[in-house]
Structures are given as C-alpha cells and as structure tokens.
Amino acid sequence: MKALVLTGVKQFEIQNLPTPEIAPDEVLVNTAYAGVCGTDHDLYAGRPGSAAAVPPIVLGHENSGVVAAVGAAVTNVKPGDRVAVDPNIYCGQCDYCLTQRPELCDHLSAVGVTRDGGLAEQFTAPASVVYRLPDNVSLKDAAAIEPISCAVHGVDLLKLRPYQKALVIGDGFMGQLFAQIVQAYGVHQVDLAGIFDDKLKRNRELFGVKNVYNTTRESIPEESYDVIIEAVGLPTTQAQAVAAARKGAQVLMFGVGPQEAHFEMNTYDIYKKQLTIQGSFINPLTFKDAISLLESGKLDVAPLISHELGLDEVQDFLEGKIKGVSKAVVKLGD
Ligand SMILES: NC(=O)c1ccc[n+]([C@@H]2O[C@H](COP(=O)([O-])OP(=O)(O)OC[C@H]3O[C@@H](n4cnc5c(N)ncnc54)[C@H](O)[C@@H]3O)[C@@H](O)[C@H]2O)c1
Ligand SMILES: [Zn+2]
Ligand SMILES: [Zn+2]
Predict the structure, then answer these.
(1) Does residue 134 share a domain with residue 26?
(2) How far does Cα 156 stand from its chain's mean position?
(3) How many Å lie between the centroid of ligand 1 and the Cα of residue 45?
(4) Beta-carbon neighbours within 5 Å of ion ligand 3
(5) Are both 125 and 183 inside the same structural domain?
(6) Start and end of every Enoyl reductase (ER) domain (predicted)?
(7) CA of 144, nearest ligand number
(8) Residue 120 pLDDT grade (very low, low, confident, very high; cuts 50, 70, 90)
(9) 3-state class of 198 per DSSP?
C-alpha cells in the first residue's frame, strides 16, 4: 500500500509498505479521507502534538474509511462498514484513567501520532476507537469528526445555559466549528471575532452568528460575554478573551500556543469577576456526540472543507505553500 512516511524532521517519503497486520482486537481500515491540521504541522517540524511522534511514522489522526478486515475478538464493526476512527488510545490503568479523566492518561498513544495513521491507503486501530457512521454522514465530512470531538470536549467542560452570550475568538476551522456547536448546545447568541472578512460573513449568513468583529480594524467589546472560547492560541487573543469576560464568565482556552508563550491578565479580575479559565485537551469519549451533531444536521462542515489534497501535496500544505485553506483533507479512497 502507498503511504506518506515521515522519515525525519520536515522529511516525507511516499513509500510502498506491506499491508499492516492486525491483532485479535484490532481493525484494518481502507482509508477514505485523512484530515490534516496544526498538530500535523507540529509533528512534521519535530515538535510534539498530543504526544511525540518518532520517525519513521505515518501521520494522519483525523481519519475515515471502510473496514477491510477485523481481528477474531472484534464485535462492534465488520468488513464493509463505513467508519471514523478516534485516534486517542488510553491505558485504562493510570491514576487519570481510573478517575474518569482518560484524556490526561500518563500513557496516551494515538493513531497518526505514536502509531501509523491515515496518510496511507490502509491503517489499523483497536476496535474500541472505531465508530460506525450513519448513512447520511459522508466519508469526507467524517474526516472532521476528530476535530469536532475536540470542540465537544471543550464545550463539555463549560456550563452552558440558554441565557448566555458567547464569543468565539478565531475564524479558523475550529473557531467556525465552535460557532455552530455552542448554538447546538443551547446558547442563545454567539458572536465571532476573526481576521478574514469572507469567513466572518459566511458565519453570519450560514451559521447563525450574530455579531462579527474583524480585529484587524475593530475591537471586541470588553466585559460583555458569559462564555468566551479562544481558538487561536496567541497571547494577544488569549488576553482579548479574558478582557471580553463579564462577571461570572467562563473562558475556554482551546487554542494551542507555542510552548514557551505567556499571556498577561489582571489577577484581581479573577477574584472580582469570579472568572473560570478552563483548558481543554483532546477528545475523551466525545466521538458519539460529534457524529450525532453531523447526523442531525445541527453542524454543517461541508462548506468549511476547502481543499481535497493528494498524498504528494501534504508537504506543500504543511510548508504553507497552499493558500486560502479553511480545512484540508487528503483523499485516499472513497
Ligand atoms: N485543545 C484541543 O484539543 C485542540 C484541538 C484542535 C485544535 N486546537 C487548537 O485550536 C486552534 C485553532 O485551530 P484551527 O484548526 O482553527 O487553526 P488554524 O490553523 O485554522 O489557525 C487559526 C486561525 O485563527 C484565525 N486567527 C489568526 N489570528 C487571529 C487573531 N488575531 N484573531 C482572530 N482569529 C485569528 C485565522 O483564521 C487562522 O486561520 C489552534 O491553536 C489549534 O492548535 C486545539
Ligand atoms: Zn488534528
Ligand atoms: Zn491511562
């Protein structure tokens, strides 16, 4: 099978690899689509994502496909099933796993990070992370289930109520997912801050966003929001998120900043406004919710998937040579 192998820092090779073998509890998947994201950019550049990737390795952690074969102990899927695969595999035995916080697992492994992933014609995964797709969810949209499931985890960590006014900062793929998801979770108003007029306009016209702020020329109203989701990961946007918080607000710090970055905030505000500043890491047990958001039509990702790439274009994408990308997926089969 054809695979894009990360052979070193910023080094890719397309190789012909043997079909991977499966253990009794594993599934072999014919890849349909593999989404690529900022995490792949970090892994490609030699920085860790949710965990470190050690070359040679096949990246691709946002995968959909069709089951090719199953091990003898697998009961939840069968050959021919259309599936999406949660990349994250937890040990089930550490303190965090035993206290229902598996995302913090001390021995996290992941398809497309610590074991070969979906930037290949086939890949394997334990059956416990393989989810069958409803008929009305396309394999292409299904490549977005992993990022959606990360957003669902972030939303799960907030206490959302219908009276709240929410602000999403960031008009990238994740920010645009959040703009829709917080509405699906019942918040009555969501506003969006970003830097691209066309994306902001689309979110007002298609996705029910009320007010938009292009922060290259407009400022975000301060002390105005009950829920703020920061989905960029820069110190400036993190500071904007806290500044936008009214009394009692919850701020979700979802964006991933550079490892050495810090942002500044007024410490008295935390006390006086009784703020909650909440981090969010990956996607524990949120795949079912992510799939249901697509199945129900409450979340529309098709307009956000701007690019369908071949394996030979992934390096150019990660080098920033492909412009105007909202979300890119690599097509391997269908
Ligand atoms: N916590 C998690 O589990 C998790 C999961 C997935 C992604 N993330 C992080 O979420 C962030 C967003 O992901 P993404 O895929 O949308 O990223 P992305 O690659 O699309 O980039 C971020 C986007 O933010 C927007 N942006 C840039 N500067 C901005 C500014 N000053 N104000 C407002 N918007 C600005 C741009 O539209 C840009 O495209 C990243 O930091 C990513 O690493 C976190
Ligand atoms: Zn990703
Ligand atoms: Zn564990």
Answers:
(1) yes
(2) 14
(3) 18
(4) 90-91, 94, 97, 105
(5) no
(6) 8-330
(7) 2
(8) very high
(9) helix
